[in-house]
Amino acid sequence: MNDLDQTPPSEALEWLEKYKNSIRGMKFNPTNRHAFDKRPDKVVYRDIKRIRLPSGYIRIAPLSWERSLPSLPWSYGELLGMLKKMPPSARIFLDTGFITSHDIPEAVWQEMARKHVCITEGVWNELRDYVDTTRNVAFRQLLADVKHGEGQGIGHSNVSFTSFADWNDHLRYAANYYKCLLWFRRNVAFVEAAKFKARNGRDPTEEELQRRFAPLGDRAWRMAIKGFRDPVKARKTTDDELIVSAVFHCILYGQPTYLFTRDNDVFENFRKMIFLVDTHYRAMLVAAHYSLHAADYDTWPIEPTGMFSYAMRGDQNLNIDLPRFIFNDVVDRERLFAVQCACSLVSTSQTPLMLSGQSFGIVKELGEILRMKGATSGRNTDLFGGRNFHLEVPSQKRQAKGIMSGLLEDAPFGILGMDIPTLDCEFALLTNEGVTQVIYKEV
Q1: pLDDT digits (tens, 9 = 90+) for 195-250
Q2: pTM of the model
Q3: Number of neighbours of residue 38 by Cβ within 10 angstroms
Q4: Beta partners for 119?
Q5: Rounded CA gap, 258 and 343, in Å?
Q6: d(CA 354, CA 74)
Q7: Are 12 and 45 in contact (CB under 8 A)?
């Protein structure tokens, strides 16, 4: 029997209810509020043998989010304590605002420099333009010295500058692909405004734009309207490259990775980035299963003029009715070792300083989908010629027994000079991160 079909033990349900009651009514970051209110959609409990973890590693369930926490009062002393508990191999990514907003105690920077601090190209470019020299001078001087040393061919053991150019062609393509999807979330309102103007001969009001975003959820609208109101900031890719770099480093190098930011949009898109990679990885596994057991699935042609027809080409497109829990059935979590990939949102206000956090169990197997994306120009599979395998494709067949999927030839949508599958763009906009939470009980 599939344990995902079983109700969790009564004591586990009681624990979950006590946890929710203990923090109900507390203030949440909007991203964590959604995750607390709506997720997890299912909690699974499994017994596992105790495994000795390396010093500083946190036990975290593979391919699962940690429980969402409210925004909590915090201090840089607590940040120093957090850093001291991290393993020496931990990778730390910082956004520009985290470095420039507050004068942070030098002991914090010294402890960070004992880990592996990664500065992306975009963050460095913004720091070079930062004219206030009164904050965090010692750390910024360290970065300048390291950058100068790299120009002379001299590296630093604990601080490095990173960019997509560090990776091979396939990984670089995958990194740019995910960067485009995150960037699109901030800039999609410009696309919708142009469509509206073409139809009506005038620019839309914000209320008219918001009606278009209603089916996508509040978080999609919040990202889109912020970009629409500040087009100069919206068109920058610095934040997107930062998020993609952090997640890719965690997957490819297998080290705990921590992203510190003061930007709600970075915090929000961090969750979306991991959701997309995780979902595409599962789609790759389901596609492989379908290729071997196609006769076991209920399929039917997608009408060329039906729902979402603009997202596909050709007449060989299929809807596939998947079993409800196949997302989890194709992943053998008990055989996977996870490392923590976390994002901490630190408030710009210091009275008081507040912290919101989220973390996910990253596994090295996710690297398979990154390489697949690069080798196929953005598809989740290479098993069906030029057709792509999508999970959760909208369908007009209401009597579907489980999850609707699609095997189809994608129509591309141009973003930042890349052709991105149109359904992936739609999927990136949706507020739909339903992830089963796995909690292990050691035996």
Answers
A1: 999 999 999 999 999 998 888 888 889 999 999 999 999 999 999 999 999 999 99
A2: 0.89
A3: 14
A4: 161
A5: 6
A6: 5
A7: yes
User: Any idea how long the chain is?
Assistant: 443
pLDDT of residue 107: 95
- Whether the upstream peptide bond of residue 352 has omega within 30° of 0, thus cis, is yes
Q: What does the block give as tokens for 153?
A: 């061919």
CA distance 8 to 43: 7
According to DSSP, residue 40 is labeled: -
Q: What angle do CA 317, 305, 323 make, to 5 degrees?
A: 40
pLDDT tens readout for residues 343-358: 999 988 877 899 999 9
Task: Round to whole Å and give the CA distance between 251 and 167.
Answer: 13
Structure tokens that stand for 66 in this block = 């940690």
Nearest residue to 413 via CA among 183, 233, 163? 183
If you search the block for the tokens 């067949």, which residue do you land on?
397
Q: Summarize pLDDT for 70-92 with one digit per residue, the tens.
A: 888 899 999 999 999 999 999 99
Report residue 85 as tokens. Answer: 């508990």
CB atoms near residue 202 (< 10 Å): 9
